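Objective 1b: paired records.
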Amino acid sequence: MSRCTAPVEGHRSASAAAACPACRGRYGRYTGYSSSYGSYSPSYSSAAGSGGGGYRSSPRPSWSRAGSSVSYTAADVLALTPVRRIFESRAALPDLRDVFLCHAWDDRQGAAKELHDQLESRGVSVWFSEKDVALGTSLLREIDKGLAKSRVGIVLVTPALLRRVRGEGIAEKELSALLARDLLVPIVHETTYEALRDVSPLLGSRSGLSTTEESMAAVAAKLAELVTV
């Protein structure tokens, strides 16, 4: 039986998934995907293209609203569909933030704040330590409460976060909690999935989004659609 290469090499693009001996057949047909979340069949439409039948580029996930200008790759749809399913299962729960933002302390006034601001400008409620942890309170306790009161989690993977995870700091504790609950979308920024896998093979095996392929604003637009009901 062929073995999936995702835990080692990742499925960051259509070509990467197509090269996997275990997944290339089903990936090419888009007939479903099986993971630790269970089996599911992502539902999406495709943008019109030239020519006859067959698969057209620009797959659109079922949660993307009609007329949306946000574009997705096939890999994006596969990566985000299981997280959307979890979000939908928790959407009716009261008093929850849409997103828990895990980040390195060093990024709190830089990339993490940029992503937070981009999300909130699109109507997404974000748990962000810079605004949600009051002076004099226990940071670990507040993080624990924030995780419990958020529907899904995103982790901003930067060089600073990789350094923190190596040192087993607070960011590492947040990651462990999010990974245990299968609520995590990694957002790779100014680093690579290869560098992430060197530090955390489990997190590195998760499909997510990357700012090397699109802007932070484009990533935030996808996340905003992901957590909109």
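Objective 1b, second protein:
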Amino acid sequence: MKGYSIEFERDNYPCARLEGVDASYKDLSEVCGRIRGKDAEWAKNFLLLVSAGKLPVLYKRHNKKLGHRHELGGKKGRYPKKAAAVVLKVLMSAIANGRSNGMGERYKIVHAAANKKNIYGRVAPKGRWARSDYETSRIEIILEPLEAVPKGVEVVPPQKEEPKKEAKEEKEVAK
């Protein structure tokens, strides 16, 4: 798949995507569903707690034969540590992309999705008939800046400062 799964203007929204993730697609989609529409700072704290195993994630779709969690008010959920850590990595990348483009410090998550990427067949050794597929996933996150830039103001990313010429002249004089 080329690009993102939704249409948006890339200049106005910071985004990040990670492909070929070795994590459960079902866990990734549930974690993305919990943070979609939330504030990025809240989502970052939530994902840190989930990846540490201190907070469960509510499973709304992939919840057959799943245990109930007291923390979720008796609703079904799990502790997807690996999936939460990968989604946190993509979220941090999207926030860093927004900051480097000069879009502010506060963001709202507009789109967070996980899709299946590739399925590789794996066959058991020694002529056995057992087969288990190896599936990879893809995560994409799109943020919306909460701090609006006034009209007529041009947003320019920060430039790297050049070393001062005076310091170079002092080194030459010292020699």
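Strands lie at 15-21, 57-58, 68-69, 75-78, 107-120, 134-145. The helical segments are 25-35, 40-51, 81-100, 165-174.
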